[in-house]
Amino acid sequence: MTTVNRAVVWHGPEDVRLEDRALPERPRAGWVRVAVAWCGVCGSDTTEVLRGPMVLPVEPHPRLGTSVPLVLGHEIAGEVVAVGDGVDGLRAGDPVVSDSLDGCGACARCDAGDANLCTGLAAAGLHFDGGLAR
User: Tell me, what CATH number does 40's domain have?
Assistant: First the structure.
């Protein structure tokens, strides 16, 4: 069964739409699904809306293969509603604030705990679907 989610989706400069998006039954391994309670709209989001794409991938992201249209929003807080395989320490009902950065997990920077410096870095709402959604 597929879950439907209302989301704010970037299609192009000044072309942002409220759409229904399908979600898989379960989050992918190592991830959780969050019922978004709050999602900030920051300067990165407004820059993408008004003048983008600046960071949003028009061509597939080299590591993730994602590209626009994408759901905006990387300042996310809410409640865990589903847990993917391999997730320890979180369960449905837990309140969370996201770490919206996704490093490759295999490079020297990630191994040193500096995923924010990963050359394959991706961020929610900029390189893969973010939290400006239910």
Answer: 3.90.180.10
Instruction: Give the number of domains in the chain.
Output: 1
Residue 17 Cα to chain centre, angstroms: 17
The answer as to whether 129 is a domain residue is no
Q: Which residues contact 26 (CB under 8 A, 6 or more apart)?
A: 33, 82, 84, 85
Provide the residue range defining the domain that includes 115: 3-123
- The contacts of residue 68 (CB under 8 Å, 6+ apart) are 10, 11, 12, 53, 56, 57, 58
pTM: 0.91
3-state DSSP assignment of residue 101: strand
How high is the mean pLDDT of the chain? 94
26-60: per-residue pLDDT in tens? 998 999 999 999 999 999 999 999 999 999 999 99
